[in-house]
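EI: anyone free to look at a 246-residue chain?
SC: sure, send it
EI:
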Amino acid sequence: MTTQVALVGGTGKLGTIIHAVIGELDGFEVVRVLTSSSDLSELDGADLVIDATTPQVSIDVVRAAVERRINVLVATSGWSAERIALIRPLVDEAASGVVFIPNFSLGSVLGSALAAAAAPFFSSAEIVEAHHEKKVDSPSGTAVRTAELIAAARAEQGPVSAPHADQRARGQQVGSVPIHSLRRPGVIAKQEVILAGPGESLTFTHDTVEPALAYAPGIRLAVPYAAQAHGVVVGLENMIDIGFRS
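SC: here you go
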C-alpha cells in the first residue's frame, strides 16, 4: 500500500529537496503539492502531511492536519519547546503523530548531541549560527534545539554562565544559552557551539555545503518514521542510534 503524501511548501528550496527524495522512496508518493497560501482543505485524503512552509504558516498546517488525524512531518524551522507544548494536547486528543525535525543533516544532529554531552563539563556555552540572508527566522530552529539539549544535559549543574545577558549584543538566550545569529550572503547554514571553562574551550562546528546531499539521508529516515509515529517527537536523533535521546 502506498502512503499518499501532501507536501505543503513543496515549491520552496527545502520542499523541492523533500519531493525529490520521496520520489526515490518505496511505498511513498507525493499526491498533492501545496504552497503556503493554498487552502488547507486540500489536505483531505492524505496519509501523511509534510510541512516545509514558514514559521507563520506552519502552525496552521500542523493544526489542520492534526484535526484531520493525519500524521505530520514538520520540516519548518522556528518551533521552540514552548511552541511545541501548545500542540501536544491537540496531538494527544487526536491520537495522531507529529514529528518535528529542526535539521535533516546527520552531521548537524551529531554535532548538537556531542555538544550537549560535553556541556555538563563546562560552565560556559554560547552558540553562533549563520544562514543565508533570506532566512526569515532567527535564531534558527537548529540553534534553539541545540540550546534546549544543552540546558537539559545540564539539569543537575544548572544554567550556564552568561555574564551581561541583559545587553542586547549578548544574543538571545534559550535555556540560558546565548545564541548569536548571522544572516548574510555566501553562506548556507553553519553552527558553532563554543563551550568554555577554566583555561580551555571546546568548539563544535557544523557547516552545510550542499543541502540536497546533506539533507537526503535524514529525509529518508524521517518520512517513514513520521508516517508511523505516535504523539510528539522532536529531533532526528530519535531515528539514529547515537546513544542520545530527547
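EI: The two ends are 32 Å apart (CA to CA).
SC: 👍
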